[in-house]
Amino acid sequence: MSARALCSVAVAIGLAVSVAPRADAQDDVAINGTFTAFSDGQWARTNDSYHIERSVTQRWTITSTCRTFQDCTGRVSSDQGWSADLIYMSGRWKTGRTVENWEPCADGTAYPGKQAWVFWHGYPQDKNQYIGWDKTEGPSGACGFNKVLDVEMPFKLTRVS
């Protein structure tokens, strides 16, 4: 076989290998370990208006597994005493919980809020950091107002171990 033919075969084999999906691609998506979860209240928004809320730092323990690089589930446990399911959809991780008595009313009653976190790799080269949003919404009609109260804050998740 000529050198030119060998080169063509080598290039063809190299191309075939480079486009083949990796068997462990789903392992690159799964996240497991301990993380610092930071919700930045300095940049909180309600109805597209910025205002300051209390920033919250938590320690999350995350376990997840993936059947494919797009089909992942898991669990988040917070040092603040709650845990919730975790799911990976459309390139983003999502988790949430109910916060009792989140929206206080003038009459002394309060309504729960639905808190949700959505996060993704903010910097693909850094597999230890994720960015996203922490958003909490109250129910429409709470406290006699037919308008949903929502607070959204920037969110950062950083691996500790």
In short:
By secondary structure, the protein is mainly beta. It is 14% helix and 53% strand. The longest helix is centred in the first third of the chain and has 17 residues, at 3-19.
Topology of this structure?
Layout: H1 3-19, H2 25-29, E1 33-39, E2 44-46, E3 49-51, E4 56-68, E5 71-78, E6 83-89, E7 92-104, E8 110-121, E9 129-137, E10 150-159
Antiparallel strand pairs: 1-4, 1-10, 2-3, 4-5, 5-6, 6-7, 7-8, 8-9, 9-10
Write up this protein.
The chain is mainly beta. 14% of the residues lie in helices and 53% in strands. Strand 6 (83-89) and strand 7 (92-104) form a beta hairpin. This is Secreted protein.
CATH topology: Lipocalin
- Order of strands, main sheet, comes to 1-4-5-6-7-8-9-10
Structural class designation: mainly beta
Q: What's the gyration radius in Å?
A: 22 Å
How much of the sequence is in beta strands? over 45%
Taken in chain order, the helices and strands follow as: HHEEEEEEEEEE
Q: Provide the helix percentage.
A: 10-25%
In total, the number of strands is 10
Instruction: Specify the number of helices.
Output: 2
What is the oligomer described by this structure?
Answer: single chain
Q: For the residues shown, what is the average pLDDT?
A: 86
The end-to-end span amounts to 53 Å
Number of domains: 1
For the largest beta-sheet, the strand count, sense and barrel status come to: 8 strands, antiparallel, barrel
Characterize the overall form: elongated
Task: State the name of the first-level CATH class.
Answer: Mainly Beta
User: Spans with pLDDT under 50 lasting ≥5 residues?
Assistant: 6-23
Keywords: Signal
Signal peptide: 1-25
Protein name: Secreted protein
Organism: Mycobacterium deserti
